[in-house]
Amino acid sequence: xxxxxxxxxxxASIDFEGATLAGLASDGGLYVPREWPRLTGTEIAAMxxxxxxxxxxxxxxxxxxxxxxxxxxxxxxxxxYGRFAHAAVTPLxxxxxxxxxxxxxxxxxxxxxxxxLQLLGLLFEEFLGRNGGKLTIVGATSGDTGSAAIDAVAGRxxxxxxxxxxHGRISDVQxxxxxxxxxxxxxxxxxxxxxxxxxxxxxxMFGDPELTGRFHIGAVNSINWARLMAQVVYYFAAxxxxxxxxxxxxxxxxxxxxxxxxxxxxAHRMGLPIEQLIVATxxxxxxxxALSQGDxxxxxxxPTAAPSMDIQVSSNFERLLYDAGGxxxxxxxxxxxxxxxxxxxxxxxxxxxxxxxxxxxxxxxPADMTAAMRWAxxxxxxxxxxxxxxxxxxxxxxxxxxxxxxxxxxxxxxxKFRDAVERATGQRPSLPARxxxxxxxxxxxxxxxxxxxxxxxxxxxxATPAR
Length: 467
Ligand SMILES: *Cc1c(COP(=O)(O)O)cnc(C)c1O
Fold this sequence. Notes:
It is a single chain. The protein has 19 helices and 15 strands. The chain has helices spanning 16-22, 41-45, 52-64, 70-81, 113-131, 144-153, 172-179, 195-206, 209-212, 225-241, 259-269, 286-293, 317-324, 329-342, 349-356, 366-380, 386-396, 418-425, 452-462, and strands at residues 3-5, 31-33, 92-94, 99-103, 135-140, 159-166, 186-191, 216-218, 249-254, 274-281, 295-297, 344-346, 359-363, 406-410, 446-448. Strand 5, helix 6 and strand 6 (159-166) form a beta-alpha-beta unit. 50% of the residues are buried. The mean pLDDT is 94. Residues 111, 113, 144, 222, 254-260, 308-309, 387, 411-412 line the site of pyridoxal-5'-phosphate (PLP). The site of pyridoxal-5'-phosphate (PLP) has 16 residues, from helix 11.
């Protein structure tokens, strides 16, 4: 399988290993497979009842190509998904006769990002081990991504991670999930400043010759193709349980950076009969405006109870615009340059038509989110987190015909957002046993001033040169 950049010429391409280690393409675009692999109905039906790691290996095999032998891919899936606290890995829970909840939060850090990052950590180790290279991951976090990334690479050979967080501005649970990981390749840095300051430092590092000259600087955000690929699997898992390929299924997805719902689009392109993908947003509704009116324009971010959906720019939307525009990389590069310069662009009519054939969108107000949490608790006995509640609201407001089951993706464990869940339902979720001793664990992190040179020098003194 070859990968091309959404902004590049169709001529230049790299393989799966190259796309995994590169993250962003050098022309600023995102890597996508040159064509979508297609499965027949018979091939999909033959996947029914497989254990999750086996299903994962079969769904991902066409994307991995020659970069990994099939047995090796299967072994990595078994290792990654063996660390989940539920034997089904992503269990499907029934809410009522039509609504289902796909629980994606049984990984080590209680967020759906574990599903992809646990595998990504192993892929980094595997590929770096082949050529003896060393990767230095730098990142900034306001909470969830940092802990999932740290857990995924802790103790892995060839990888070091430096994770910046704003000192005193994340919750105790979020901080402890990162700072209590004591593996020597994990470096937590609390900086004196805001999340935006931390993120600006990280962006600057990618262009700083003092770092890029000596180190292979890498990223773990969701622009990495391997992360999206790993997320395609649970769409298959859920649809197969509900009768695919003989029955069509819809999904409602709490959306921020458009990675999770794009994985659903990939499953559809592979032949999984998906009736509709519902893009659920909170009041930070750039995607809802883009999908319903063609208006892709960024506004100021409003902080909400669902912080992972508080976004201005949805990086992976570029991948959908590329396909919807007939894979015209030059036209897309112009459209994205316009968006980057003026923070606004319009979708073309053909992009809108092509997208509307599969996608719809909904925006949830805070009161809609609260009502969905209450309904899940009172009618179904389920506690759900604010992100999942926004998608459940969108699913219940859907006008699809009643014979199509709708699966709502549950992206965080309710205990990660205990205060918001308690405010809405009156019940405080308890931390699962596997992280129940979080507050008794030793913590380790460096405190640095909000000064770029201080942070850069700290990293340069500790990272391992590229080779
Ligand atoms: C990251 C995240 C999301 C958004 O996922 P995207 O792939 O960025 O659209 C939703 N819910 C939770 C809990 C998350 O951590």
